[in-house]
């Protein structure tokens, strides 16, 4: 068994696609119209056959209060691995990304948390050697 797909709930699929590709550097894997929404996935360019991230529309009534509560409490929805948190933090800040947590040493990892512009806080992390 392996993880094939993970989701992030986004309030605007087109805005999310621009952010996740243009800013984070993912590449589009699937973009299939499905009525008013799309089956829209992105992958890491380093692993194009790897785990897909579904940019899931957040239209269900339970989503907004759930996401609002996570953001209010500063809780990231998910985490992405990076080689160098400080370098990624500086690159992303240069692109205008708003961070809610600067790079922070957490013992075995260094993490930072940013706003994905689509209603989520996302954490990036680097394992320390």
Secondary structure blueprint with pairings:
Elements: E1 5-10, H1 13-23, E2 27-34, E3 37-43, E4 52-57, H2 63-72, E5 78-81, H3 85-94, E6 99-105, E7 109-115, E8 121-127
Parallel strand pairs: 1-4, 5-8
Antiparallel strand pairs: 2-3, 3-4, 6-7, 7-8
Keywords:
129 residues, four-stranded mixed β-sheet, 3 helices
The low-confidence parts are none
| Number of helical stretches of at least 4 residues | 3
Instruction: Give the mean pLDDT.
Output: 97
The count of strands amounts to: 8
What kind of sheet is the major sheet? 4 strands, mixed
Distance between the termini: 28 Å
Question: What is the chain-wise order of helices and strands?
Answer: EHEEEHEHEEE
Strand content: 35-45%
- Rg: 15 Å
What overall form do the CA principal axes indicate?
Answer: globular
Which percent range fits the helix content? 10-25%
Q: Quaternary status of these chains?
A: single chain
**Which strand order does the major sheet show?**
1-4-3-2
Class of secondary structure makeup: alpha/beta
């Amino acid at each position: 068994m392996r993880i094939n797909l993970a989701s992030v709930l986004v309030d605007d699929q087109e805005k999310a696609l621009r952010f996740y590709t243009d800013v984070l550097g993912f590449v589009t894997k699937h973009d299939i119209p499905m009525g008013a929404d799309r089956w829209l996935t992105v992958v890491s360019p380093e692993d194009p056959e790897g785990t897909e991230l579904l940019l899931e529309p957040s239209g269900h009534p339970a989503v907004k209060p759930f996401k609002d509560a996570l953001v209010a409490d500063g809780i990231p929805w998910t985490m992405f691995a990076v080689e160098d948190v400080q370098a990624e933090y500086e690159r992303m800040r240069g692109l205008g990304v708003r961070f809610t947590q600067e790079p922070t040493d957490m013992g075995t990892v260094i993490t930072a948390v940013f706003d994905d512009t689509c209603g989520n806080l996302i954490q990036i992390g680097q394992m320390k050697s």
